[in-house]
Amino acid sequence: MAIKKSDPEYPSAAAFLPPKKTIPALRAAAKSCEGCPLHLHATQTVFGEGPAGARILFIGEQPGDQEDLRGRPFVGPAGRLLDEALEEAGIKRSETFMTNAVKHFKFEMRGKRRLHAKPRAREIEACRPWLDAEIAAVKPRLIVCLGATAAQAMMGRAFRITKERGKVFKPADGPWIMATVHPSSILRAPDDESRRQAKRDFIKDLKKAASALES
């Protein structure tokens, strides 16, 4: 869904980008972003993390509860599972750039708990300038989208992970791109065996990503 320029609720993050678009400058500027209403309730902006020049850039949907509190991407339960899978796949997290399509935690209260709520299309679009700036600054060789929201943000709303999961697309310009599941989906599997199989499949996808970097 396109954002209406006249909609004061969604002015877009573009107005908050700094003139100098290095990762440190972008991270500092993102702290004061008011590009959509999500900033009103989140604890803080959770910007991407990792070295400029990383060959692989991972994109998730949005920060979770722990990420919102700590100000870092992928440090909650899903992040720990991702770390384990990366190690199994032979990818060093310290050599990757981790970020999300949306930089503020969207949630709904359930008693005293803050539960994840899916970002709206307008919120994803409003936050897109940060993601584009991160990609431009890092210049990765490969982008890995974790989950449907990230994949559709990058490849269009018609993209389906169920059909295209694990495939590496090589556009005429720009970095290669592939999509797999978000690690949080593995944690939601109904039983231990399902979780083990889902994790094995996830590691298999990450190994494909590692192989693509060497091709």
Tally of separate helices:
8
Q: Please give the largest β-sheet.
A: 4 strands, parallel
Strand content: 5-15%
- In the CATH scheme, the class would be Alpha Beta
Question: Main sheet: which strands, in order across?
Answer: 2-1-5-6
Instruction: Give the fraction of residues assigned to helices.
Output: 25-40%
Distance between the termini: 36 Å
Mean pLDDT: 93
What is the C-alpha radius of gyration, as a whole number of Å? 17 Å
Task: Write the CATH fold name.
Answer: Uracil-DNA Glycosylase, subunit E
Structure, described:
The chain has 215 residues and is α/β, with parallel strands linked by helices. It has one domain (13-214): Uracil-DNA Glycosylase, subunit E (3-Layer(aba) Sandwich), CATH 3.40.470. The chain is 40% helix and 13% strand. The protein has 8 helices and 6 strands, in the order H-E-H-H-E-E-E-H-E-H-H-E-H-H. The protein has helices spanning 23-30, 65-70, 77-89, 121-138, 148-155, 161-164, 183-187, 192-214; strands spanning 56-60, 96-100, 107-110, 113-116, 142-146, 176-180. The strands form 2 sheets. Strands 2-1-5-6 form a 4-stranded parallel beta sheet, with helices on both faces. Helix 3 (77-89) packs across helix 8 (192-214). The radius of gyration is 17 Å and the shape is globular. The protein starts with 22 loop residues before the first helix and ends with a helix. The model is unreliable at 1-6 (pLDDT under 50).
